[in-house]
Amino acid sequence: MLIYTFRLNFTAEQILTIYRGDAQRISVLSEQGLRIELAAQHLRRFIGHSGLQGRFRLRTDDNHRFLDLERIG
């Protein structure tokens, strides 16, 4: 299992493309210095009235396939 951490800070206006389903993938820079691309659908449950903010932990299998995403801060 591989673990990556990253931060997101999107306003409500910025996050509309994810919420509506217009954006299919999101690219982020992890705290480990790696560029990560994940399906936008995995972020939907974290969207609030003020947008999408926080620190997240992404877990993947050894082949880099999505296992779990959680907000950690």
| N-to-C SSE string, H for helix and E for strand | EHEEEE
Distance between the ends = 21 Å
The total tally of domains equals 1
Q: In what order do the strands lie side by side in the largest sheet?
A: 1-4-5
The radius of gyration is 12 Å
- The residue fraction in helices comes out at 10-25%
Quick one: biggest sheet?
3 strands, antiparallel
Decide which structural class fits the backbone: mainly beta
Please provide the count of β strands: 5
How many helices? The count is 1
Label the overall shape.
globular
Question: What fraction strand?
Answer: over 45%
Question: Any key phrases for this structure?
Answer:
single chain, 73 residues, mainly beta, 3-stranded antiparallel beta sheet, two-stranded antiparallel sheet, 1 helix, 11% helix, globular
Detailed description of the structure:
By secondary structure, the chain is mainly beta. Helices cover 11% and strands 47% of the residues. The protein is built from one helix and five strands; from the N terminus they run βαββββ. The strands form two sheets. The chain has a three-stranded antiparallel β-sheet. A two-stranded antiparallel sheet has the order 2-3. The longest helix has 8 residues. It is globular. The chain starts with a strand and ends with a strand. The mean pLDDT is 93.
